[in-house]
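Researcher: Sequence recovery benchmark, item below. Answer with residues only.
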């Protein structure tokens, strides 16, 4: 993955994985977005968007959620409308986390894949193999630049933490 230095407007983050074998506990992966304000872009998020939650202003939507990985292609899809975000928003960090106690890693979940695109253009594709020993990973950091436009750093960074801890550390430096 790499950096995208253009003014982004509406970005889609899509996640896929293979279902567990018959009789085994389901793999449940989630896309999470943390929104940070301009007054504290590395502090506590202004709000989190994940399964069961949405952004208060409607700029981040979880369009599809899967708890098993069963489906065709990308099973979980989130849309981030950067161009509609309030000026007081400075950063949006998007990550993937495996639900559970934090002991399961991406190495245990076959067929993982993340796709980040704007319109029909793929900005990044990744299989999360570089963070196989992690149970959570950031996949994109969208940052408002000096002119008010949005750029992206599309780098996968793994964390050996569970879902609750991940929401606290994902936006740190």
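Model:
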């Amino acid at each position: 993955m790499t950096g995208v230095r253009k003014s982004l407007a509406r970005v889609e983050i899509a996640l896929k994985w293979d279902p567990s074998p018959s009789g085994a506990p389901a793999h449940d992966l989630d896309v999470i977005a943390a929104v940070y304000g301009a007054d504290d872009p590395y502090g506590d998020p202004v709000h989190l968007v994940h399964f069961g939650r949405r952004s208060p202003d409607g700029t981040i939507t979880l369009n599809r959620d899967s708890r098993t990985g069963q489906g065709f292609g990308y099973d979980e899809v989130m849309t981030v409308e950067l161009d509609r975000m309030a000026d007081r928003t400075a950063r949006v960090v998007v990550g993937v986390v495996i639900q559970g106690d934090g002991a399961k890693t991406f190495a245990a979940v076959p067929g993982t894949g993340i796709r980040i695109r704007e319109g029909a253009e793929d900005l990044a594709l990744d299989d999360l193999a570089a963070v196989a020993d992690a149970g959570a990973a950031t996949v994109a950091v969208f940052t408002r630049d000096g002119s008010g436009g949005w750029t992206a750093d599309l780098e996968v960074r793994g964390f050996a933490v569970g879902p609750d801890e991940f929401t606290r550390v994902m936006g740190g430096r």
